[in-house]
Amino acid sequence: MAARPVVRKALGLGGHGSGLQQAVEHGKSTLFFREVCRTLPWVVHNYKLEELTTVSQLRRNVNQLFRRFEEVKTPEAVDLLIYKGREELETDFCPVGLCSSQMIIMQHKQRHHLIDKYVGLPATTEPKPKPGNLSPFLAQFYLSN
Amino acid sequence: MAAQAAPAPADDLIEVTVDGKPVKVPKGSNVLQACDAAGVDVPRFCYHQRLSIAGNCRMCLVEVEKSPKPVASCAMPAGPGMNIKTSTPLVKKAREGVMEFLLINHPLDCPICDQGGECDLQDQAMAFGSDRSRFTEVKRAVVDKNLGPLVKTVMTRCIHCTRCVRFAKEVAGVEDLGMTGRGRDSEIGTYVERMLTSELSANVIDLCPVGALTAKPSAFTFRNWELASTESVDVSDALGSAIRVDARGPEVFRVTPRLNDAINQEWISDKARFQVDALRLQRLSQPLVRGAGGGLEPATWPRALAAAAEGLARARGHELRGVAGRLADVESVVALKDLLNRLGLAGVDGADSVLLVGTDPRAEAPVLNARLRALALAGVPFASIGAPLDLTFPLLAAGDVVREGWNGFAVLADAAGTVGALDLGFVPGAGARGVAPRAVYLLGADDYEEGDVPADAFVVYQGHHGERGAARADVVLPGAAYTEKFGTYVNAEGRAQSTKAAVGPPGAARDDWKVLRALSEVMGAPLPYDTLAGVRARLAEVAPHLARRGALEPPLWLGADALGVGGAAGKPAADPLATRVTNFYQTDAISRASKTMARCVRARQNPVPGL
């Protein structure tokens, strides 16, 4: 779904220009994903996550978070998602000196925020249980503890 | 362990007055206990109700009428008619003076001290100290001591209350710590560098009123005000000590003892305290199914349950075997028992003499050993049959202890789940003997006998740590550890107690009884309970005493015939009687996964570094 004109204007995106379309095709999100991946070794070291996970495991988990929005193709929506991702990265993830904002060097997220959101993520995506033949107990069991 | 101190008869009471309020205390109490009885808080550092009286910190000075000087209330016996005053200008000045002397040499490093926020010295300096010091010289510095992998020392902070020295000597029964030097040069230490050799050594961390002795494994990892506490029960041994589990977010950071006079008083073993680092290591956080390539592969719950159901369905009747592990809670055991069915200590405090048979309480339940030691020091004769033991108290020859007409018999279980599983009658049925199982359900069982799990059997492992059982399994179902679930455990005395969830289970792990309940539905034989209350109602049907939490259930003594011992059938065993716990620090899946416990094992092999 295309973003409303007012949103596009606010983000300084203009209309559906061919330039934006090109940016998506060339993988703006892929570039951002690589940027995230480059920070992961620092994250693991800085938050002492070595005993819980590895860089490659964390990369797989982040990859899954990206793939959750695989069907989003609208350039404005992709930009918005990257903007939100960058916000998350730079308040959690950014190594000192790589980014320019003052917000970045402050570690707004603590270790347990990262564990909850990125480390504890199950590597397999649970399919939604089919309603009907399951008892309420089993339906709830498949969803969460 | 059940006997409580009976209230003193009326003629054994004396009346004293504290701050104008009359109060009756038992004869032999000291002035500080009288103040406590009157509800008046007297500051203290060296006094501790379970240790001998040292009287060396001088913080508990109070004024007693007709006494020319303030008196140390912990060391002064209360006399009848004594008039004690705790809020006079004399007392205030005395406290300020003592505090000023203590702070002369205490470093001002509260911002980097792990005790900060729960430090007696910090609190009392705020409440009773002055706001300035007249001391202008240089503070002293003391070399830190290496006490092993558990206790971190910053000896400059020590105020020489000697609580740790008295604990080691009187409760733990090891003369490891002592004071050397005089006056300004006095130091607490081990004289030659060596680690603390007691299994209760880390209790000195709780006893230390300042930050001189703190926890080494968790140094600098948390501030105590960040932690959320949950009152729970320990499962590292069969004693079921009362503990408090402190967590921040999804991680357990600390376990401390909780007061329970009937079980652990206020001590816990080093294993109970420091095995919690394993709760984030080697965890099973998602279901696994053995793939075509022979390795375990991640799977979703529906797929894993379907695979488990298919494998288990191949076994008929007695070909299906369930093995409950050392850490299985009663709820999951009853669920497993129900599922399989659908498909096919006595008190010691009153003892007059004790004979230990083939057991080593120091390794199996160190806190119990400390209580036995107190009994032994009080004159109760102890003897042991089996391998030679060092229990920190003297043992006599068995012939001097055993008497005619004995009726006391207690079994010290060596794992938290044992008594509960036996209470539920989780024993092989008569038809199952001699039948090789085609499918085995391991409920947290990593210490199974090889013979219980034939090589060609289909194995389902349900548990929280990836170890021997999970490696053997065809399907792995992730469960919750004891800090992550509400589970009932029955301790060696027969006391049913419940753990409480301090954090959630990791990843896709689920409560153990829920896994069994879900599996039963997938197998087409759903268990009739959907809630924890439902499981506990079922428990109460099977074993009514499990519904009475915290109450003691004495064992039913059926006589030697019921055990199949004695009489003509009794033959001496070929193996010497010895404890099954050969390594105190590593007894179950959790403690074996703990890095701290592994460090303890290494340190125990070489208690004096450099030798």
UniProtKB/TrEMBL annotation, chain A:
Name of the protein: NADH dehydrogenase [ubiquinone] 1 alpha subcomplex subunit 6
CC terms in the record's Gene Ontology section: mitochondrial inner membrane
UniProt-listed InterPro entries: NADH_Ub_cplx-1_asu_su-6 (IPR016488)
Subcellular location(s) of the protein: Mitochondrion inner membrane
Coiled coil: none
Membrane topology classification: Peripheral membrane protein
Single GO biological process annotation from the record: response to oxidative stress
Family membership noted in the UniProt record: Belongs to the complex I LYR family.
Predominant location: mitochondrion
Coiled coil as UniProt keyword: no
Native source organism of the sequence: Auxenochlorella protothecoides
Keyword entries, A-Z: Electron transport, Membrane, Mitochondrion, Mitochondrion inner membrane, Respiratory chain, Transport
TrEMBL record, chain B:
Keyword field: 4Fe-4S, Iron, Iron-sulfur, Metal-binding, NAD, Translocase, Ubiquinone
PROSITE patterns xrefs: 2FE2S_FER_2, 4FE4S_HC3, 4FE4S_MOW_BIS_MGD, COMPLEX1_75K_1, COMPLEX1_75K_2, COMPLEX1_75K_3
2Fe-2S ferredoxin-type domain boundaries: 12-90
Cofactor: [4Fe-4S] cluster; [2Fe-2S] cluster
Any GO BP: ATP synthesis coupled electron transport
Domain 4Fe-4S His(Cys)3-ligated-type: 90-129
A single GO cellular-component term on record: membrane
GO function terms (MF aspect): 4 iron, 4 sulfur cluster binding; metal ion binding; NADH dehydrogenase (ubiquinone) activity; oxidoreductase activity, acting on NAD(P)H
UniProt family annotation: Belongs to the complex I 75 kDa subunit family.
PANTHER family for the chain: NADH-UBIQUINONE OXIDOREDUCTASE 75 KDA SUBUNIT, MITOCHONDRIAL (PTHR43105:SF13), RESPIRATORY NITRATE REDUCTASE (PTHR43105)
Protein name listed in UniProt: NADH dehydrogenase [ubiquinone] iron-sulfur protein 1, mitochondrial
Source organism (scientific name): Auxenochlorella protothecoides (Green microalga)
